Amino acid sequence: MELSTAAGLASEVREASEPCAASEPPSTVRRAEGLQPLEAQGFSAGLCAPLESQFDALPRGWREHLRSFIDSPAYRPLCSFVDAQIAAGKTVYPTEVFRALRLTGPDDVKVVVVGQDPYHGDDKGHPQAHGLAFSVPAPVRPPPSLRNIFKEITAEFGHEMPSHGCLDAWARQGVLLLNTVLTVEQGKAASHAKRGWEACTDTLIRELAHRHEHLVFMLWGAHAQAKRALLDARPHCVLEAPHPSPLSAHRGFLGCGHFRLANEYLEANGRSPIDWRLPATVDG
Question: Where are the beta strands (DSSP E) in the chain?
């Protein structure tokens, strides 16, 4: 069974890497009570390790999903490009490229949220990107797109607005927060687009859709919705809406009901629902 909702798809303004939010002026960091500083969570200024070493360190299940990409002609040029950026002294975000895959195993995936590229900005010197689409580490203030996501969840379930924007709790329940480009140069939106990441994440989406059943794919905005072509005929739930960016959220994202629809689909297929609330504190 496939469930799909679509709204307001015409002439969307291109949302920069998750974000439009990332290109906004840095705002004051507000630390919720109990949240640890970034340094205590293991974050550094930018990516330092060679990209191939991060591929090598992937859990076996994810490496199998990515096998056709790793064996393809696109793999080494991507690694060489990212490594050359680092060697040239450029700051590359995020520090842990595959954090989304470390927090969510392939057999644990229930929901796939497709983003674009990592946040390229800093918030009072702290990088916003930390390897999960739309998410920011505590104590970085949630950007506008993420705040709109929280508004929608609050409207659907009556939850309180979270005090931080770290979505680790979702990832640990099976929500794969996947950007289609996984690195970016500091301060330059989409700077690592069309360098090979799209082939990598297309492979990942295609393999997830082919190897598993009853997944929920949340495709927000034209960029994410283009990935629908990667989904095969296996039973999945595909939810479409405009991007949660302030430029388009009021044209159909707010009021889309996706988070409740996702849980209804999961429960109807014998899977536990996602608790979309976030904890008051974040573990390091």
Answer: 92-93, 111-114, 122-123, 126-127, 175-178, 184-185, 216-220, 237-241
